[in-house]
Amino acid sequence: MRNILLIIFFGLSVSAPAQSYDVEKVNKKAVAVFERAILKLQEDKHKEAIVLLEKAVEIDPSYVDAILSMAGAYGQLKNYQKSVELYEKGRSIDSQYFKFYNLPYSINLAGLGRFKEALESINQFLTIPELSDRSRKSGEYRKSSFEFAVEYEGKNPVGNYVFAPRNLGDSINSPSSEYYPSITINDSQFVFTRRGEGFREDFFESTILPNKSYSRSRLIRGDINMESSKGAINISHDGEWLIFAGYNFQGGFGDFDLYISYYTPEGWSEPLNLGRNINTEFWESAPTISSDKRALYFSSNRYGGYGGKDIYVSYRLPNGRWGAAQNMGPQVNSAGDEEAPFIHADNATLYYSSNGLLGYGDKDLFLIRKGPNNKWSAPENLGYPINTIEHEGSLFVAADGKTSFYASDRSDSRGGLDIYTFELRPNVRPAKTLYVQGKVYDMKTGKGLPSGVELVDMSTQQPVTNIQTDETGHYFITLPVGKDYAFSVNRKGYLFYTDIYRLSNQSPDSTYDKDIPLKPVELNASVILKNILFETNSAQLQKISLIDINRLLNLLKENPSLKVQINGYTDNVGKPADNLKLSAARSKSVVDYLIAQGVEAARLTFKGFGETKLIAENKTETGRAQNRRTEFVIVGQ
After folding, report:
1. What is the C-alpha to C-alpha distance for residues 216 and 236, in angstroms, rounded to an integer?
2. Is residue 124 helix, strand or coil?
3. What is the 3-state secondary structure (H, E, C) of 401-453?
């Protein structure tokens, strides 16, 4: 009987040794009830089987097979605590008989996060000499997972962190399954997929209210829900695009393809296939779009990968089309399946699931971080209790870097998978991300100007984000906190605009709304170069200054007849004569750099004004910093 149960529950094939527990002495009435329970277990009716098994144990309290079968049934229902208690009860009656059950017992211990005990139990199981190859292979797999868990726990103590997923409630969840949550960066719009009848899947949306509650979800308006067979969905951080997977749509290439829909006042537009550079005749799904809309990540099982399903990325070209998708390589992908990528609003942290990388069992969630020169780090397991012995699917992390969402079939599910929210453990969080939005317009006419907007990390001088405004000049750009950024806006025929966002030493909760007037390239037009900085009491340019100086260099190259004067200003700290001299020297250092880069000296002049033309009060450091400035003025065309 034990062999039958082990095969039913765990796929084991073992030979039963001599034992002190005697099946022949079990009460016959209990055996009859037990046999009915086994039929229920074979039909996956675990709850009904448990009722019968309880009755069998009530008739014969020492009925070990019934106790252990009940433990297995509770394990199938993911009630790990009850399962472990019953396994231990069976072991207390006959430890020799129990030894073959150390495998399922260890799995349920791991389900509770008791990995050290699970490892001890699986090691005991693997000492059994008569194990079949299949049983030993299963045991070795679990052993490697438990060893990983114990090592991870030792290196990543959770401290006071508490994992407490909260069901989003009836406004979002239903008796059907909900999954693939996605939220705009300003936490205003929430979209997800809901399972319907048969192959039907629909896209729903909800408004996140100021008190962080959710409006009752509703079908997303427009043509996006017309076709029945759809899948993963992702909303762009600015709320303007929906990218999703659709099956067998008209004009598709085969299997699931990726489609895009654009927001309009009348609802979402008719979906458009993203084309041959993205889609193939194979499966493409689980899209996620970067905050600057320049990178699209997704999963595909096309030929040429490293496993069953791999993560790919496509970059948007200057003409707005998507470039050929690129496999993210063997450091990200494995011989197994990699799915459900999610790129955070910081544009530098990518989460995804994998069953081919070492973890806790089945499918775990991992993250990779983008470093210098856009090189990705090695995958990092998110650890227990986010990852468990079960299947972990998609993860979404809000702009604050800690509020996270995932789908799970926990005990308080309304039915199937529900969407839950929880706080992400600090060491696996992305950067908190704010945003700046506004309109670029002509200073004279007020007309919106399509322009390029760039964000540069001041510490590395590497571009973080580079976007194009829409046709009316509106833009939306993310600001990951923890670093200082140089912000610039460029359009041919206009003087560029620059600003600095200092977020390295503070974590403001506000976002930025900034409308930006651009000045046409004309006589006497001027721009303050906010990113030009000098060493204290020195004319030595700081490295970060090259960002703005090179923009001025490009302006001079685009307009070869242009002549400019570089003006320098200081605050009122120090002697006026010294400040005048220092401001002139600083202006000259900018001119010297431009000449060294090939600009004719005849096109450049410089002048120092010292503290004579203040634009702010010198009573605060903020005011003094505004007065210490460099500008250029067009003095000839």
Report:
1. 21
2. helix
3. CCEEEEEECCCCCCCCCEEEEEECCHHHCCCCEEEEEEEEEECCCCCECCCEE
Q: What are φ and ψ of residue 407, in 5° steps? A: -105, 135
Q: How many residues does the chain have?
A: 637
Q: What one-character DSSP code corresponds to residue 494?
A: B
- Integer Cα distance of 340 and 288 in angstroms: 8
Number of H helices, E strands in the chain: 12, 33
- Residues 214-251: pLDDT tens digits? 999 999 988 888 887 888 999 999 999 999 999 878 78
Residue with tokens 């210490």: 628
Please give the full DSSP string across 183-217, using - where no structure is assigned.
Answer: E-TTS-EEEEEEE-STT-EEEEEEEBPTTS-BPPP
Classify residue 123 by its DSSP letter.
H
Contact 289, 476 (CB under 8 A): no
Specify the pLDDT at position 506. 64
Give how far Cα 317 sits from Cα of 58, 159, 271, 524, Å. Answer: 71, 45, 20, 36
Distance CA 103, CA 122 (A): 6
* Mean per-residue pLDDT of the chain: 90
Contact of 374 with 408, CB cutoff 8 Å: no
Give 432-520's CATH code, choosing from 1.10.10.10, 2.60.40.1120, 3.40.50.720, 3.40.50.300: 2.60.40.1120
Give the H or E element holding residue 364: strand 364-369
- Each residue of 529-547: pLDDT tens digit? 988 888 888 899 988 888 8
CATH fold of 522-637: 60s Ribosomal Protein L30; Chain: A; (3.30.1330)
Strand partners, 209: none
pLDDT digits (tens, 9 = 90+) for 173-209: 999 999 999 999 988 899 999 998 878 899 999 999 8
Q: Name the architecture of domain 2-155.
A: Alpha Horseshoe (1.25)
Give one word for 356, left, alpha or beta, with left for phi > 0 and alpha for psi -120 to 50: alpha
Rounded to an integer, the average pLDDT of 431-436 is 90
Residue 544 structure tokens: 């970060």
Does residue 303 surpass a pLDDT of 90?
yes
- Nearest alpha carbon to residue 181 among 50, 286, 305: 286
**What strands, in cross-sheet order, belong to the sheet with 403-408?**
166-167, 418-423, 403-408, 395-397
Cα angle 306, 311, 312 (rounded to 5 degrees) comes to 105
**Predicted local distance difference test score (pLDDT) of residue 166:** 93
The string of pLDDT tens digits covering residues 14-70 is 444 445 678 888 999 999 999 999 999 999 999 999 999 999 999 999 999 999 999
Per-residue model confidence (pLDDT) at position 507: 60
Q: Which two tokens stand for residue 406?
A: 């995932």
Q: How confident is the model at residue 372 (pLDDT cuts 50, 70, 90)?
A: confident
Backbone angles phi, psi at 238, to 5 degrees: -90, 0
- In CATH terms, 172-428 corresponds, of 3.30.450.20, 3.90.190.20, 2.120.10.30, 3.30.565.10, to 2.120.10.30
User: What is the pLDDT averaged over residues 489-497?
Assistant: 92
∠ CA 398-403-406, rounded to 5°: 85
Tell me what pLDDT residue 157 has.
Answer: 83
Cα–Cα distance, 540 to 594 (Å, whole number): 15
Q: Which two tokens stand for residue 511?
A: 């976002």
